[in-house]
Amino acid sequence: MNATTASTSALAASLPGSPLAQAYGRQPAGALEKLARLLHWPAVALIALAALYLVFTLYTAGQTWWALGALGLFGAGFAIYLTEAGLAYRYLFPGVAGMLLFIAFPLAYTTQIGFTNYSSAHLLSQERVREYLLEQHDAVLDEVRDYGVYADGKEFRLVLRDPATGAVQFLSPALALRQSDQPLTVEMQSPADSRVQPSSATDSPWGAALTLKDLIAHRAALAQLRLQLPGQRDPGQLLHYLGLREFGPIRPHFEELPDGALKRNADGALFRPDASTGYYEGEGAAAGTHLAPGYKVMVGWQNYARMVLDAEFRGPFLSIFSWTVVFSLLTVVFSTAIGMMLAVLLNWEDLRFRTTYRTLLFLPYAVPGFISILVFKGLFNQNFGEINAILDALFGVKPAWFADPLLAKTMLLIVNVWLGYPYVMILCAGLLKAIPSDLYEASAIAGAGPLTNFFRITAPLIIKPLAPLLVSAFAFNFNNFVLIALLTDGRPDYLSTKIPAGQTDILVSYTYRIAFRDSGTDFGLAAAISTLIFILVAAMSLLNLRLMRKANS
């Protein structure tokens, strides 16, 4: 046997499951393979049970659509990873599932909210609002009684005292004090009728009194008790838990009628649910009033119509939309002009200290943006900023950068161009390396100058591959929330507007303001504006793809 044959035999013998391996008794992986096959289906069964339990938990919590979505996602995963037919999709499934969960679902949910009146005043469903209103009540103060809870082993007894004398008046049977979702009616009895009689050996014939800490621990169970005194049969006279020291009867504020209306017990006024406003609206003498809180309803295109038809909202909205476009466009134009000019200058081989200049000009891009923004906020301070100090020394003026709308917008453009030009400079520097030097040599022979070279050779060859990246920069600045939030916070504000709006707000900061700040958290309107922003950015992305396709063709 030669060396090649010997080495081949040795390799074959080392392979698990081969005849030579069986002959030589070498099967180190065979046991692991058998163990993996043995545990495969039990592991699948455990994962399936966990998935079904999650789906069941979502369904029992009332989240039917979430349960169906989770069931579909888990079902698709099992079908792909447990069948041969899904072999080709096993590497695609995680990415597709992530896209559905983190991109498609938030987008669809935001769009759906845009067709509702969802806001801080309309957070709950109609059923939950009805339950909340029916739970509102006042205590009948004249009949409130102090109570105590006594423990004798695992049994508890609740004692009611006379409001006038403080003497023990009623005693409950033995209670377990377990938490429950349903109220428990307890028939009270006088101590004389109880089988547990006072004992002269102890001060407390019903066991040890619970401390305040123990009462707090059993508060949830005590809140479910409804105490019925001897001779009382009217449910409205039952004593309810009113706190850590008191039980007493309650007087509900509202009563539900068979037709779904709510009657206010104080004056008999009727309130009916109104699907157009999301409130229980008053009738008769209570007309023009509604009960708070409201509930979430579908309002169709109402939020989108407000952007066009509501004059008080349309004015600031159109101004903010126009400023957003102008802000993004001017930022890209100025950043491109400065970045391209610096890239061309740094491409000049006879320029001394090119590396030093390139490093210094790159620094605004290397420093985190939010730090630069906060530094500029201090530099532009009207009273203590260095910029105003220089302007005051040279020209005797101290501009109100944050109070004047035009100056505030100018300041935003200055800071944003400062942050953005290094990006364009780096792109142009790379693109300049791809321009053949023969073109410049031929231009020099023809007697052309630097400006002619730039406008006839450099700019036309750079702008075509640069165009898709500039569209991306425009889309980024269209949603540049951090700059607005940290530098001006949208101020100064428009005067006399229905919804507070800032003159330096762009659409994304205006949306944030509507959703979470000044205007009462109108999530529905904010979602509608967010959907509009998505449509605009998506249109720019499609334009970007077209430009990239043309650039590559």
From TrEMBL:
GO cellular component, one term: maltose transport complex
A Pfam family hit: MalF_P2
InterPro entries (alphabetical): MalF_N (IPR035277), MalF_P2 (IPR029345), MalF_P2_sf (IPR047103), MetI-like (IPR000515), MetI-like_sf (IPR035906)
UniProt subcellular location: Cell inner membrane; Cell membrane
Keywords: Cell inner membrane, Cell membrane, Membrane, Sugar transport, Transmembrane, Transmembrane helix, Transport
Domain ABC transmembrane type-1 residues, every copy: 321-544
GO biological process: maltodextrin transmembrane transport
UniProt topology in membrane: Multi-pass membrane protein
GO molecular function: ABC-type maltose transporter activity
Entry's transmembrane regions: 39-58, 65-82, 88-109, 320-348, 360-380, 410-432, 466-487, 523-545
Record PANTHER family: MALTOSE/MALTODEXTRIN TRANSPORT SYSTEM PERMEASE PROTEIN MALF, MALTOSE_MALTODEXTRIN TRANSPORT SYSTEM PERMEASE PROTEIN MALF
Task performed by this protein: Part of the ABC transporter complex MalEFGK involved in maltose/maltodextrin import. Probably responsible for the translocation of the substrate across the membrane.
NCBIfam families: PRK10999.1
Entry similarity comment: Belongs to the binding-protein-dependent transport system permease family. MalFG subfamily.
Assembly: The complex is composed of two ATP-binding proteins (MalK), two transmembrane proteins (MalG and MalF) and a solute-binding protein (MalE).
Protein name: Maltose/maltodextrin transport system permease protein
Organism of provenance: Roseateles aquatilis
